[in-house]
C-alpha cells in the first residue's frame, strides 16, 4: 500500500479526527460539527472520514457471506466461535457481534455521509474550486448508497435516514419498505455515476469513480431482480437485468479496465490498483492510529503462521473450506492452490483441514495483526464481465451466447482449465464460486440466483458430517435485526421472521 494512495482514516462520530486530501492523518482538536467546516479542506477531511467506515467491510463479507455459504464448513476445533452460529443457521444470533457490527458500522457511515451532505448544503459556498463541491457530494452519496445496499442484503427493510438526526429522532424512524430503500439507493448511485470523475490523480487513488458507481448500480438492479422468496428482501423480482446489462456494457466499453493474465497478480501486495480494480478498500500500514487491513489474519489459523516462522495473529482456529468447494476445482485449476491452503505441519503434528489463504502473503506478515498492508478489492473487472454473462443468460439483449462463452472461457483460460461450449447458468454460477472464493460474493450470488433454497440444503446434507447445522429455511436469507436495536425502543422494529 503506497502512502500516496487514499488511506482509510479512523474518525470519531463527530468527525473529530481528519485526514488531508490524500488521507494522511492530521488530528483536529476540539472540533465540532458546527465549527468544523470553515475551509474547503474540512469538507475533504469529512468525506475521508466517511470512507473510514469501509475498514471492516472485508471482514464482514468473510463473516456473513463466506461463512454463511457453502464455501466454508465453519465448525471450529478450538472452542465455540462467533462464526459457528452464522454457519449453522442458529436462530439465536440476534446478539451475535458480527450481526451487530454490520448494522452499527453501516449506519455510522450513513450518519457521517449525512452530516457532510448537510454541511455542503449549508456551508458549501466555501468551496470555490471548480467541480469539487459536486464531486464531494457525489462521493458522499456513493458511500451512503454503498452502506445502504450492504444493509439491504443482510437485513432487508431498514430505516431510510437522509439527514443528520440525534438519537431521540432516530427512535421515531421505522424500517422503510424495501422498494423505498432501493429507490433511495438508486437515486444516490445515479447522481454519483453522473458526477464522479472517471479517474483521479495518484494522490487521490482509491476514491469512488463513476465506474464504481455504475458497477454498484448494476449490482443493485441485478439484486432486486432476484426472486422474493416471499420474504422482505433483498430480491423484488423486478426483472431489471437489461438495465444492469446496459451499465455493465458501458463499463466494459470505457476501456479503463482489463483482465490480468495471471490470477495471482490481482491480489499481489506489489500490484495494488491494477487494471482489474474498479473499487477497493484501501489501507496503509505503520501509522498511528493503525489503519491497516484486518481481513487477512482472519483467514488463517495461528499455528500456520507459527509453522512458517511468523508472529501469532489472533489465536483463531480454522474455518475449514467445505469439501464441496474443494471438490469443485478441476485438477489443473491454479486458483485452488492460490486461494486455499490444503494442509501443513506444526510441531510435528499434521493439520489436514483446508482454509482460505487468498490475500495472505507470508512475506508481508505484520507484527500487528490489524495492520496488514493489503487493499481489499470490492469490485473487479472479471466480476463485471461475469455479471454481464449472467444478464445475457437471463435472456436479455446486449450480448449473445458467444459472448457468454468468450467471457467464461477467458476466465477459465487464465485458470489453466479447458474451455466450455454453450455455457449454462449453472456452469456460470459454479465458475463464479471458484473465481471469487474468499472474496465475499458467494452468499449474494446464491440469493440472487434463486438457487439458495436448493443448493444450501443439499450442501448441508452432504457436508455436515458433525451434524452441527440446523435445517435451512428461506427466512435465513436475511439476518436478524440486532437485539440492541430492538431493545433501545421496543416496538419500533419487528424482528425478521425465523428468529
Automatic annotation (TrEMBL):
Keyword check for Cell inner membrane: no
Name of a matching Pfam family: SusD_RagB
Family annotation (InterPro entries): SusD-like_N (IPR033985), SusD_RagB_dom (IPR012944), TPR-like_helical_dom_sf (IPR011990)
Chain ranges of the SusD-like N-terminal domain: 79-219
Signal peptide annotation: 1-23
Keyword list, A-Z: Cell outer membrane, Membrane, Signal
Superkingdom field: Bacteria
Keyword Lipoprotein set for record: no
Subcellular location: Cell outer membrane
Domain RagB/SusD: 352-499
Family: Belongs to the SusD family.
Designated name of the protein: RagB/SusD family nutrient uptake outer membrane protein
Organism this protein belongs to: Spirosoma soli
Amino acid at each position: 500500500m503506497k502512502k500516496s494512495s487514499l488511506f482509510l482514516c479512523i474518525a470519531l462520530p463527530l468527525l473529530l479526527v481528519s485526514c488531508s486530501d490524500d488521507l494522511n492523518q492530521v488530528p483536529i482538536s476540539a472540533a465540532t460539527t458546527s465549527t468544523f467546516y470553515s475551509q474547503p479542506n474540512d469538507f475533504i477531511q469529512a468525506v475521508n472520514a466517511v470512507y473510514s467506515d469501509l475498514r471492516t467491510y472485508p471482514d464482514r463479507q468473510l463473516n456473513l457471506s463466506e461463512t454463511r455459504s457453502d464455501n466454508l464448513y465453519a465448525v471450529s476445533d478450538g472452542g465455540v466461535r462467533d462464526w459457528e452460529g452464522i454457519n449453522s443457521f442458529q436462530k439465536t444470533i440476534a446478539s451475535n457481534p458480527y450481526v451487530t457490527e454490520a448494522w452499527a458500522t453501516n449506519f455510522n457511515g450513513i450518519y457521517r455521509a449525512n452530516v457532510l451532505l448537510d454541511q455542503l448544503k449549508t456551508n458549501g459556498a466555501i468551496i470555490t474550486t471548480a467541480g469539487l463541491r459536486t464531486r464531494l457530494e457525489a462521493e458522499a452519496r456513493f458511500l451512503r448508497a454503498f452502506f445502504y445496499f450492504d444493509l439491504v442484503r443482510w437485513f432487508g427493510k431498514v430505516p431510510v435516514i437522509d439527514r443528520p438526526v440525534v438519537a431521540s429522532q432516530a427512535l421515531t424512524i421505522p424500517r422503510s419498505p424495501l422498494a423505498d430503500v432501493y429507490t433511495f439507493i438508486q437515486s444516490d448511485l445515479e447522481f454519483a455515476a453522473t458526477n464522479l470523475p472517471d479517474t483521479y490523480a495518484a494522490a487521490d487513488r482509491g476514491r469512488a469513480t463513476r465506474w464504481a458507481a455504475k458497477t454498484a448500480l448494476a449490482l443493485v438492479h441485478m439484486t432486486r431482480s432476484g426472486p422474493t422468496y416471499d420474504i422482505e428482501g433483498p430480491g423484488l423480482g423486478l426483472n431489471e437485468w437489461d438495465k444492469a446489462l446496459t451499465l455493465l456494457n458501458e463499463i466494459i466499453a470505457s476501456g479503463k479496465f482489463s483482465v490480468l493474465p495471471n490470477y495471482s497478480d490481482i491480489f499481489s501486495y506489489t500490484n495494488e490498483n491494477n487494471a482489474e480494480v474498479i473499487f477497493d478498500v484501501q489501507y496503509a500500514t505503520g501509522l498511528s492510529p493503525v489503519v491497516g487491513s484486518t481481513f487477512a489474519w482472519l483467514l488463517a489459523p495461528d499455528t500456520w503462521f507459527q509453522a512458517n516462522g511468523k508472529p501469532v495473529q489472533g489465536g483463531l482456529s480454522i474455518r475449514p473450506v467445505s469439501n464441496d468447494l474443494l471438490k469443485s476445482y478441476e485438477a489443473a485449476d491454479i486458483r485452488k492452490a492460490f486461494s486455499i491452503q490444503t494442509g501443513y505441519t506444526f510441531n510435528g503434528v499434521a493439520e489436514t483441514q483446508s482454509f482460505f489463504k487468498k490475500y495472505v502473503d507470508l512475506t508481508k506478515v505484520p507484527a500487528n495483526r490489524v495492520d496488514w498492508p493489503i487493499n481489499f478489492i470490492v469490485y473487479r473487472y472479471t466480476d463485471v464481465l461475469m455479471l454481464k454473462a449472467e444478464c445475457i443468460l437471463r435472456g436479455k439483449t446486449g450480448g449473445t451466447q458467444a459472448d457468454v462463452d468468450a467471457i467464461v472461457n477467458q476466465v477459465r483460460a487464465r485458470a489453466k482449465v479447458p474451455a466450455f461450449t454453450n455455457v449454462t447458468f449453472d456452469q456460470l454460477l459454479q465458475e463464479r464460486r471458484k473465481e471469487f472464493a474468499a472474496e465475499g460474493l458467494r452468499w449474494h450470488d446464491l440469493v440472487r440466483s434463486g438457487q439458495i433454497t436448493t443448493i444450501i440444503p443439499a450442501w448441508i446434507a452432504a457436508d455436515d458430517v458433525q451434524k452441527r447445522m440446523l435445517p435451512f429455511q428461506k427466512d435465513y436469507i436475511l439476518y436478524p435485526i440486532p437485539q440492541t436495536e430492538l431493545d433501545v425502543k421496543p416496538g419500533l422494529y419487528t424482528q425478521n421472521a425465523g428468529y
